[in-house]
Every structure is written in structure tokens, then in C-alpha cells.
Amino acid sequence: RKGEGEGEGPFKLLGFLDIKNVPCARESILYGSVGSFVVGLGHFVATSRVRRSCDFAVGGFICTMLGYWFYCRYNYAQHRIRQRMIREGMKNKLLFEGSSLDPERKQTGDERSNS
Q1: What is the 3-state secondary structure (H, E, C) of 52-96?
Q2: Which keywords are on file for this protein (predicted)?
Q3: CA separation for the pair 19, 29 (Å, rounded)
């Protein structure tokens, strides 16, 4: 008998969306399901039409999920860009620290005349 987590492949929604490893996938599905419930229930309370409310619930799921997916992926890309800029800045600081190219190093008049 296999132990918990042993030999199990990743959980893939619809066979292709790896929820565990794809950024924003899990949150998009969760927000989509909440949106589906809210839209479907709201439409049912307003109209008392079950089939039409289910149609609205499916539409609410799709719209909420895609809306949050694009919002989350945009923020994720912005975060990655900021991380890359900080990483390059730290690398440049280590590279130029103490040299004549160091922007934080104050040059006095004597150093300028010697250079």
C-alpha cells in the first residue's frame, strides 16, 4: 500500500492544469467557485428560475475565474520584474563596491586630480 504523497502524480484539473505548480491557478479556481455561488444564488433569489440560475452560475464561474486569473498573473509578472531588478542591482552593488564606478563613493578633489 502506498503511503500518503508517495508515487502520486500532481493533481491536474481537466487533465492539463497542474493546480499545485501553476501560479494563480488554485486561487482562480477558488474565487471562481465563490463567484459562481454568489451569481447563481443571487439570480435564483431574484427570479426563482432554477435552470437559468444555473446558467448564470456557470457564467459567473467563468468570468470570475478568468478575471482573477488575469489580475493575478499581471501582479505575478510585475513581482517577477521587481525581483529581477533587485537581483541585478544587488549583483552590480557587489561588483562595483569600492571601485571608482561605485555611485555611493564620494570623490574628493584630490582623488579627481589623481584620476
Answers
A1: HHHHHHHHHHHHHHHHHHHHHHHHHHHHHHHHHHHHHHHHHHHHH
A2: Membrane, Mitochondrion, Mitochondrion inner membrane, Transmembrane, Transmembrane helix
A3: 9
Give 24's contacts (C-beta < 8 A, 6+ positions apart): 68, 69, 72, 73, 76
Task: Note if the pTM is more than 0.90.
Answer: no
Q: Which amino acid is at 56?
A: F
What is the C-alpha to C-alpha distance for residues 46 and 54, in angstroms, rounded to an integer?
A: 13
The answer to whether the CB of 39 falls within 8 A of the CB of 59 is: yes
Rounded-to-10 torsion of CA 28, 29, 35, 36: 150
Rounded CA gap, 91 and 97, in Å?
A: 10
- The string over 54-76, giving b where at least 16 C-beta atoms fall within 10 Å of a residue's C-beta and e elsewhere, is eebbeebbeebbeebbeebeeee
Cell of 94: 557587489
pLDDT tens digits for 35-85?
999 999 999 999 999 999 999 999 999 999 999 999 999 999 999 999 999
